[in-house]
Write the structure tokens for this entry.
Amino acid sequence: MITLNVNGTDHSLNIDPDMPLLYALRNYLQLNGAKYGCGLGQCGACTVMVEGKPVFSCLLPSGAATGRAVKTVEGLGSADKPGPLQQAFIDNQAAQCGYCIAGMIMRAQALIDTVAAPTDEQIRTHMAPNLCRCGTHLRIFAAIKATLAARVNP
Amino acid sequence: MNHGEERVDQGRRAFIINGALVVGFAMVPGAGRAFADTEVDTLGTQVLAPDLPGSLRTNPFLDAWIRIDEQNVITVYTGKVELGTGVKTALLQVAAERLEVAPQLIHFLMADTALTPNEGYTAGSHTMFDSGTALFNAAAQVRQLLLESAARQWGSTVEQLSTKDAVIQGPANQSMTYAQALVGVQLHRYASARSPAMAPDRFTRIGHSLPRVDIPAKVSGGASYVQDMRLPGMLHARVIRPPRRAAAAGSKQSTRPPSTTWAAGSDWCAMAATWLWSPRTNGRRSRPCARAMNWHAGPKGMRCLIQAISISC
């Protein structure tokens, strides 16, 4: 039995602590945000935030996430009430198939939360681990920039 | 080295002497139509009405595409799926354009095998060409039938009527909803080959940008993908294929793991579990099912392919 704190709520789960966090989130907590992509930490579709840092949830054992705050894209807002970064992704139509987008948003959110005014280069470097095969990168970049600009000039 | 024998004479004379030209044509005009219901189109669906446009050829009934309930809620159906190309939004634009209603008034239902027309695969850039064309025509024909119904009831002509937000307006300021006009109209009928014309410069939805309707769910963890389906009693299976090309299963029954949900063919096996990840089925930790297959080695050079699929039990 392990306890996971996800989006501010504690959940006691009777699972193998070796089970990757992704499977605990998707299968036991029924959260659709984090996606199974490669299962090898190479694509970033499974990215969530743990203690404010972006991590590949397909690699992190659930046991290693106990006692640490896990945040998924569901924790940023809903389709009806999207958070600022989610709204910027909608405004910029920053999704084609959208499979990578929840991971993209979580990685971007980690940057936005920790760096006041990142440079374009910092954004690119920070986002590099997450892949988008559709080629939505420029729209994703625009959405991140828009969120940062709105924070400076609300 | 002698390359002389490999030389091919591509001259016209040589072709006429050695070649053959076959030209086919139908002796009886319309023979193709007589065999229409035996024709299967490229997407694997049966052609029932070869003269109709788009997917109306395979799904000719108007009510396969558009239904209107008593509350004037319009439901539009398509057999194509949204794979991230934006067709859900684009098809909605087409239907809204020809029904002449706001897209928000349409309940758009996509690829539910129990409810929507069977349009075969969503592939090959066919969606707008097939489903879009069907909706373009079916929506216009349904609207026309409703206008004709209203004109009959009011003793006016169709030309005197206009529509706005699924409400028909008459020449003496009368109005009735699409649902009211539908009384006495049978939508379970074949579409016509011709639809009311609409000049492209009158388009207000087609060719105009509409934000993608699927994106809000995709940025917030909504159920958007087949992986997000959770059916009662659903198991996840991991399929294991041979470690090498042409490898074949050996005495698999003897070492089969007991009391497992297990299936096997001559060159594959699968184990099912409640969740995709479990120590039992996790490919990297243990492969009892693969071991049970006791592969006879084939030629070297092919990696073991492990694929995960979901099955419903």
Summary: Chain B touches chain A at residues 83-86, 211-212, 214-225, 227-228, 230, 275-277, 279 (CB under 8 Å).
